[in-house]
Structure formats: C-alpha cells, structure tokens
C-alpha cells in the first residue's frame, strides 16, 4: 500500500467534535490526498406517519441544515489548502449507502468515528461499525476519542500462532498498512501478538500425552519464536516488539493504553452464520481501547 490518494470520511452530524474528521484531515495533509466527506441522514422513526407533502418539505429542510452544518465544519480545512468535497445523503439504509460509495469511489481508506453502543443494544441490533467491519471492501479506520489526531505510535497486531504462517498474506498486509501509516505520519511502528494459554486448554489435543502446562509452554515458546523471526524479517527494533500473554481483546486493549498506541492495525475476517452474531476480537476492541483501529481485510474477500 503506497501513499493515500483518496480518503472517504463519514461525518456524524450529531457530534460537535469529530475525531475521525480530524484524523482524516491529518492523513490528507500528510499524503496530499483528496478527502470526500459523506453525511448520511436517516429518517426519524415517525417518518411513515407524516403526510407526503410534510415529509417532502421536512426532508428538504433536514438536508439543507445538514449541508450547511457540514460545510461549516470543513471550510477551515479548505482554508488550510486541503482538497475537500462534501455530500449529504438522505437514506433509510446508511450501511448500503456507504458500501455503494466505497464501491464507486474506491478510496484507499474509509475513516469513521467509533460509535459507542451498549451491550443491551448490541444484543438486538448489529452496530453499523460491526457491519462495516464485516462488509467494507477497503481498509476501515475507526477513530476513537483518545489518542492524538496526528498519530505518534502505531502498532501492527499480527496473528502468528496456531496453523497460521507468520508471513501469511494477511499478516503482510497488516504490517504494510501499518508501515504506510507510520511513514506518512512520521510515527513509531510497533509489532504485537497476543498468545492465550487458555486457548490451548480449550482446544482438542486429546492425542497428546503431555500435560496441559507442558503443551501450553511448548506452544508459547514456538509462537514466541515465530513472532520474533517475523519481527526480524519486518525490521522491527527490539524495543518495539511485544509478545503478550492472555486473552487477545483484554491484552491488546491494555497494551494500547499502557504504551500509548494511537492506531492499532488489525486483520478482520469475513464470517458467516453464528460467528456473525458472536463478534470478534477486532469488534470488541472498539469499546475497550481509547485510541483507534485500522482494520485490514484479507485479499480476495
């Protein structure tokens, strides 16, 4: 992945301060990329109850007000010399509309504010962020309220364990994306992997005669060795390699807070069936770390 050329940002007009817009402006400035800002307005729940003429006038009013608000937000960016365009769309299905824009525009990255969604709501509905993590065809940058607008520390979270080759295509894409971002922002690049010993206990190792502790120790040593060899191949300095022990979601969130990681670059897997409802490490990290995520899809998915 080379320097960014086209960035697409989703504007949340309910927010007075948008970390995603600030981050997108930084990336556009550092890479001299064009920036398109898209705002989606959903009809209120009572919309079908209104008369047609009332709906038409109200829609025009909502869109006009949103366009004026959005233009006011990005005017200062234009004064800074950035190439910024903006658009407001009225839609009952923001997810489909966003995917359509991604397909037509083919941006290098889609940048969006993290939407904090409580557990109860997640039980009954799938958050838009999760839907985009599963369906968006380009790297998805979800920006939290913590961290610096101009990233100073970026970490590539790779999975070198189990049956996954350390230099797998997805791991390479994660490191490449993290390195591109670090170079453009003149930021530190870290490499991290979380090994969960309990995953060994939960796995099917009935054919082994060794104790669980011995088996977990052997696998930990093997994964650490694979991780360090991969770090060597990537040219990551010794003090920026982090091999963590524990549940990935918990350990990565704590690592990001303790080290001051502004952007954690991770992979995302397109899933079907029950897995779509359970969620993944990437999805649950959205609500446990103050910084940002850059989610990378495997090729050809």
UniProtKB/TrEMBL annotation:
<dbReference type="Pfam" id="PF00582">
    <property type="entry name" value="Usp"/>
</dbReference>
<protein>
    <submittedName>
        <fullName>Universal stress protein E</fullName>
    </submittedName>
</protein>
<keyword id="KW-0963">Cytoplasm</keyword>
<comment type="similarity">
    <text>Belongs to the universal stress protein A family.</text>
</comment>
<dbReference type="InterPro" id="IPR006016">
    <property type="entry name" value="UspA"/>
</dbReference>
<feature type="domain" description="UspA">
    <location>
        <begin position="4"/>
        <end position="143"/>
    </location>
</feature>
<dbReference type="GO" id="GO:0005737">
    <property type="term" value="C:cytoplasm"/>
</dbReference>
<feature type="domain" description="UspA">
    <location>
        <begin position="152"/>
        <end position="297"/>
    </location>
</feature>
<comment type="function">
    <text>Required for resistance to DNA-damaging agents.</text>
</comment>
């Amino acid at each position: 992945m080379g320097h960014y050329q086209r960035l697409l940002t989703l504007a949340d007009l309910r927010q007075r301060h948008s970390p995603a817009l600030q981050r997108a402006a930084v990336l556009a400035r550092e890479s001299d990329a064009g920036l398109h800002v898209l705002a989606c307005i959903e009809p209120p729940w009572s919309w079908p109850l209104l008369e047609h003429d009332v709906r038409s006038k109200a829609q025009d009013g909502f869109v006009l007000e949103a366009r004026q608000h959005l233009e006011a937000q990005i005017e200062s960016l234009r004064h800074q010399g950035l190439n910024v365009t903006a658009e407001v769309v009225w839609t009952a299905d923001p997810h489909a509309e966003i995917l359509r824009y991604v397909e037509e525009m083919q941006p290098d990255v889609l940048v969006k504010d993290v939407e904090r969604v409580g557990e109860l709501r997640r039980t009954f509905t799938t958050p838009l962020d999760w839907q985009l993590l599963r369906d968006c065809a380009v790297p998805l940058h979800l920006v939290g309220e913590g961290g610096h607008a101009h990233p100073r520390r970026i970490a590539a979270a790779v999975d070198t364990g189990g049956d996954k080759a350390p230099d797998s295509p997805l791991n390479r894409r994660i490191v490449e994306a993290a390195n591109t971002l670090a170079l453009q922002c003149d930021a530190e690049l870290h490499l991290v992997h979380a090994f969960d010993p309990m995953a060994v206990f939960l796995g099917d190792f009935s054919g082994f005669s060794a104790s669980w502790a011995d088996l977990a120790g052997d696998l930990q040593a093997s994964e650490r060795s694979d991780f360090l060899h991969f770090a060597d191949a990537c040219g990551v300095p010794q003090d920026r390699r982090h091999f963590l022990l524990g549940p990935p979601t918990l350990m990565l969130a704590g690592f990001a807070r303790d080290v001051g990681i502004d952007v954690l670059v991770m992979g995302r897997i397109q899933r079907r069936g029950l897995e779509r409802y359970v969620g993944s490490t990437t999805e649950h990290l959205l609500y446990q770390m103050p910084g940002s995520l850059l989610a990378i899809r495997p090729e050809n998915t």
